[in-house]
Amino acid sequence: MYRGVVVLISSLLLLCSVCGYQLKNGGKIWALLVAGSNEYNNYRHQADVCHAYQILHKNGIPDDNIIVMMYDDIAYNVQNPTKGIIINQPNGSDVYNGVPKDYTGETVNSTNFLKVLTGDVEGMKGIGSGRVIESGPNDHVFVNFVDHGAPGILGFPSDELYADDLEKALRKIAVNRQFAQLVFYVEACESGSMFDSLLPDDLKIFVVTAADPKESSYACYFDNTRETYLGDVFSVMWMQDSEEENLLKETLHHQYEVVRSDTNTSHVEEYGDLDIGSMHVSDFLGYQTSNLNSPKTELPPINDAVPSHHVPVAILERRLEASVDPKEKQEIRFQLHRLLKVS
Predict the structure, then answer these.
(1) What is the pLDDT of residue 21?
(2) Set 189, 254, 267, 310: catalytic member
(3) Which of 40, 113, 146, 190 is most buried, by the most CB atoms less than 10 A from its CB?
(4) Is the pLDDT of residue 197 over 60?
(5) Can you give the three-state secondary structure of the chain, one letter per residue?
(6) 189 has catalytic annotation
């Protein structure tokens, strides 16, 4: 009898890990993952988003419920020495394989982002995959945005998303009861400015930003082979925590406190309905039963973090230091001079 119960429970857990995490109220988890940049210098943004997808996918959230927006010019970029492979940490595994590419190239823009977020099926017909967040009043939504930012602005390859427009979209889907709760993680400079004094605390939306309204977020893990930064400090920290902790027990607030403590380059902030922080991380990221008892793996310490806006200069400085060819050095110095003159 006992053995039969154990087998039944194990089977149910396996079924949950395959079919996706079922919320207690019968709802589903939806996710929108966005890398708002292009060009090889910004390798880390798409790497962050691809890694986030792998976490959600392994945690049982079906691809039908995950929408990815990224320019997709990194994996097969002429500068990428490992074609078709993207990593997010030193000696890391490939995070690009299997990632859905719903919106790529010029379809990655602020207009389409807002349409996808608000469930505008008609507005996205004929664009990319056409998929949008079709969540309902019992569902949870997780949004992860990674890119450059400025006061009141989040960047896209060819345009910008303004704080007022984002706030209107979030208010719209809250009023229309298109979710039970929504969690939004934002990796960008001055990302706090998108929500500070703008996002009400009664919309059932919980936001965590990489930086406060007036400071930069930071890139990290420079890779000598790829000659670029692999990740961003805030993103690295929340994803490391998500892969180490038992998400069935860890609360969003606990993850926020851990990430805020570990991100010593900028001030991680929280906004909106802070009561949502008492909910479990698994309610938005799902969970992987096979990893509940897995040993923790420590990432290399971050000792090379640089402000996001300084990345192009830092990359050239590292290339200059590593180069042994006089002509190459001269060309790199010229590029540095031109870049510093423009900035």
Answers:
(1) 58
(2) 189
(3) 146
(4) yes
(5) CHHHHHHHHHHHHHHHHHHCCCCCCCCCEEEEEEECCCCHHHHHHHHHHHHHHHHHHHCCCCHHHEEEECCCCCCCCCCCCCCCCCCCCCCCCCCCCCCCCCECHHHCCHHHHHHHHCCCCHHHCCCCCCCCCCCCCCCEEEEEEECCEECCEEECCCCEEEHHHHHHHHHHHHHCCCCCEEEEEEECCCHHHHCCCCCCCCCCEEEEECCCCCCCCEEEEEECCCCEEEEEHHHHHHHHHHHHCCCCCCEHHHHHHHHHHHCCCCCCEEEECHHHHHCECHHHHCCCHHHCCCCCCCCCCCCCCEEHHHHHHHHHHHHHHHCCCHHHHHHHHHHHHHHHHHC
(6) yes
Is pTM beyond 0.85? Reply is yes
For residue 180, what are the contacts with CB-CB under 8 A and spacing of at least 6? Answer: 23, 25, 27, 137, 138, 139, 140, 204
Q: Is 51 a catalytic residue?
A: no
R_g (Cα) of the chain, nearest Å: 20
Which residues make Cβ contacts (< 8 Å) with residue 278, sequence separation at least 6? 251, 252, 253
Quote the CA–CA distance of 89 and 119 in Å, as a whole number.
33
Structure tokens at 95: 């995070």
Can you tell me which residue has the tokens 């930086």? Answer: 211
* Pair of tokens at residue 291: 């990893």
Q: Which residues are bridge partners to 181 per DSSP?
A: 140
From the candidates 140, 148, 220, 253, give the one annotated as an active-site residue: 148
pLDDT tens for residues 3-36? 444 333 333 433 443 345 578 888 999 999 999 9
